[in-house]
Amino acid sequence: MELTRDQRLHLRAQAHGLQPVVMIGANGLTEAVIREIAVNLDAHELIKVRVLGDDREQRAAWYADICEQLECAPVQQIGKLLVLYRPTQDGKSKISLSKPSAKAAKQAQSAADSKKKVKPQETTRSNRPKKSR
Fold first, then answer.
1. Dmax of the chain from CA atoms?
2. Which domain holds residue 15?
3. Number of domains, the chain
4. Which end of the chain has a smaller Cβ tally under 10 Å, C or N?
5. What are residue 30's phi and psi, to 5 degrees?
6. Using 50, 70 and 90 to split pLDDT, how confident is the model at 95?
7. pTM score, two decimals?
8. Coil, helix or strand for 28?
9. pLDDT tens for each residue of 69-86
């Protein structure tokens, strides 16, 4: 599953306040861990997973393996935290991905403002704007 940049940013913002619901411990990525991640993805759609271990390459490999096995989207990896997203199978998504980014909304607002006609200001003899009283 692929996400656009704006969708990923929106999901990252949504995941900010979440606590990790699954921990990958010393035994690594077992079938039980995969099942637990799948159960939590079905229940919440957006989850954090904590990886206990110091091997960066192993964390990246597990992240890719989880996304491939569970058909979920990688949202973000921050150190030992993995953020995963998978919409529910029944189509009733709890998280809306169609929200426009703040930057896009700001650009739309500035475009609308630029179309408004600006009333010219009155000026003094030295071409400075008159003070309002």
1. 82
2. 5-85
3. 1
4. C
5. -95, 170
6. confident
7. 0.70
8. coil
9. 999 999 999 999 999 999
